[in-house]
Amino acid sequence: MSQGRVHRRSLAAGPVAALLLSGCGIPESDVIEAGGPAHVQNFVSEAYGALLFFRLPHGDLAPVTRQLTPVAATGEFGGGYQEGGGTVRPPTTEKVISALLHGPGPADRAAGLDTALPRVPDGTVRVRFSVGTSASASGSGSGSGGVVLDLPLAVAGLDATAVRQLICTAAYSKDRDGRVPVRLTGRDGATTSGTCDVDPQPGNAPAPAGTDGRTVPGDRPQ
Amino acid sequence: MNLLGRKRPGGPDDGTENVSVAPPAPGAHHGSADAHGRPHHAPAGDTHTPCGDTHTPSGDGARRAGDERPGARGRRPVRRTTAFGLRTRLVLAFLLVAAVSAGTTSALTYREARNALLHTAQDTAVATFREHVRQTSFALPVRAEGTEEILRDIARKGKPRPWVVFAEYGTIRVSSGTSPVSTVITPQLRRAAQANPRGSFERVVKDGVPYLTIAMPTVFRTGPQSTLPTGLILYAVMRMNDEQTNVDALLTAARNGAVPGLAVALLPGLLAARSVLRPVRELRRAAHSMGSGRLDTRIPVRGTDELADLAHTFNETAGSLEHSVEELRRAEARARRFASDVSHELRTPLAGMLAVTEVLDEDADQLDPDTARAVRLISAETGKLAVLVEDLIEISRFDAHAAELNTDELDAAEAIRKTLGNRHWTDDRVRAELPDGIRVRLDPRRFDIVVANLVGNALRHGAAPVTVRLSTGTRSDGEAVLITEVADNGPGIRPDVLPHIFDRFYKADAARTRSAGSGLGLAITRENVGLHAGTVRAGNRPGGGAVFTVEIPLHRNEDGA
């Protein structure tokens, strides 16, 4: 009888004790998502900044701003931003792609940025617009038009990161929202096309998976 | 009947309990009970016996009898239960319920409160961190130099308290603290921040210190609709000291709430136990009191619960019991008085008859032989009748508790020798082993009757020689006693007769309706021995022959006399 009572009591006290013991103090937690990212200010201006996409050590693309206007050709953003004051026009896509093909600058390399593209210091890049004749100055209205790049390199040998670098750099040079479809044509005649997929907001950008699908390998000439 | 019987052990002369003949004997049972119970009720009053029962250690006589009394036997289980009694169980049950409810409540409350506290702290920290990061601007690519200033600025504005801010961009690692790389931030958090540009946090406990680590990837607006991740991820690491303190305080509060709760629960537990135990205790006391003869015991009925019902039933039962016992007592008293009256009424005519038969006896020789035989028969039978009436009167005195003990200090051997001499048992039919010098305090007349009855009985039913042996010994309760043994060389007593041998008019042989004795001799012997607080036993010797053993205390207590 008393044995049974003791047993019952321990049965009842067990969960209570477990509850008390397990919940003491501040426990560890998993990684919990809490809201969106932080929007920071950036000294990129559509008037005189260009966005080049380089590769971060862990593989993702990171945009860097590059000053390509005549006023501040050094690439240092400070002076050019202050003195430029909107008197200069934004750099053309040809210039931007050329800069990309030149590879990361000293500041980029200092931050560990890298490129997947072969270094092509002196090739010429030609840019055509596939549809419509949207003004090159206005990025906002050119969403419907595509950009076609004739590149001084073999497109077939490029890996996915290199292709993304080219597409994104070209897209953002044409359109501040980066929505322009881009077609790359290499010296080897291979073409690939796609849109930039680095925009984190799902509503604004095509599905990231779609980009890979649209990136046609160069061995399928068109 | 039982109640009457139970009364007997309460008296100081309960030594008679040891009489081997006591147990069944339906006919003699109540008679002997009365004979032993009453004498002590009469002088000491009715309260004497119950007192002896309820206060066991106080009375010497009661203590002596303590082990044998039904009251004591009934009490033992009660003592045993107090170790884990009703009170303990009730209080434990209350405490258990209180502990479970208080424990569960405080545990749940504690968890909820802690989670709420942590949520608030985390949400505040994450929101604040995001807000502060938003007010900063970075050039792309991020440069190591200058970034530290920005991080320090954010760190200073940390809420709810300063935090350490780490920045990771490419291969650049900068922090507002001393070490550029945090040891607290887990790879999981890093991976989550790199894979998905959304704010996230993780609580980490390192070396017993809880930290909140927040990862905040940064994005920038490139156009009216588009944002791009900069690749820069800012981390904030905040010690949750205050939260720890608060959580500890919560825990302490929960404990402090639960423990007094238990103490408070003890009170209703004790009250409930008391409310149950008090009637139970009263009931026990009343039952005990009734068992020891106070049939007028009643319990006060309080309330209308089951215990009150029980008390009510108890009172009703006690009432009817008292009534029937009273009836029985009256009937018994009537019967006894009748026997006594008859005996006394017979004595007067018998005295006359005895005188006449004595004269007739003397003249019998001059009568013709037939008439002489008839006269001698009448004379003998009248003598027997006179003895029977005397014995009946003696027994009636015992039944009426009118028997008195007139004790005197004397030499036991001397007394027995006198008894044997008076009866002319001085020839070799009776052997006496009587060591001199045993002083004993007893009633010489009654002791004479005891010895004479036993020796006469032995001579009549057993066979000579009869041995009377005197010795002293110690009873099992430590009392020094005078032991008188009367043994004969007869066939002994049959075992089925043994229990009834002291009963009145008990005939060992049913066919033999007439015997030389009155049939009351042994009964009177037992009453007399009982009056001395002694015991008498009948048994058989191993070698054959019956032996009667009388044990009488050498020095009786005056209060029992």
UniProtKB/TrEMBL annotation, chain A:
UniProt-recorded name of the protein: Lipoprotein
Organism: Streptomyces candidus
PROSITE patterns per the UniProt record, alphabetical: PROKAR_LIPOPROTEIN (PS51257)
Spans annotated as Disordered: 180-222
From TrEMBL, chain B:
UniProt cross-references to CDD domains, sorted A to Z: HAMP, HATPase, HisKA
Family annotation (Pfam families): HAMP, HATPase_c, HisKA
Chain ranges passing through the membrane: 90-110
Single GO MF descriptor: phosphorelay sensor kinase activity
Catalytic reactions on record: ATP + protein L-histidine = ADP + protein N-phospho-L-histidine
SUPFAM superfamilies named in the record: ATPase domain of HSP90 chaperone/DNA topoisomerase II/histidine kinase, HAMP domain-like, Homodimeric domain of signal transducing histidine kinase
InterPro entries found in the cross-reference section: HAMP_dom, HATPase_C_sf, HATPase_dom, His_kinase_dom, HisK_dim/P_dom, HisK_dim/P_sf, Sig_transdc_His_kin-like_C, TCS_sensor_his_kinase
HAMP domain: residues covered: 274-326
EC number of this enzyme: 2.7.13.3
Signal sequence region: none
NADP among keywords: no
Domain Histidine kinase: 341-556
Claim: Transferase is one of the keywords in the record: yes
Gene Ontology CC terms, in alphabetical order: plasma membrane
Basic and acidic residues composition-biased segments: 61-71
Catalytic class of the enzyme: transferase
Disordered: annotated span: 1-80
Subcellular localization: Cell membrane
Keyword annotations of the record: Kinase, Membrane, Phosphoprotein, Transferase, Transmembrane, Transmembrane helix, Two-component regulatory system
UniProt xrefs under PANTHER family: SENSOR HISTIDINE KINASE TRCS, SENSOR HISTIDINE KINASE YKOH
Protein known as: histidine kinase
Source organism: Streptomyces candidus
Lineage per the UniProt record: Bacteria, Bacillati, Actinomycetota, Actinomycetes, Kitasatosporales
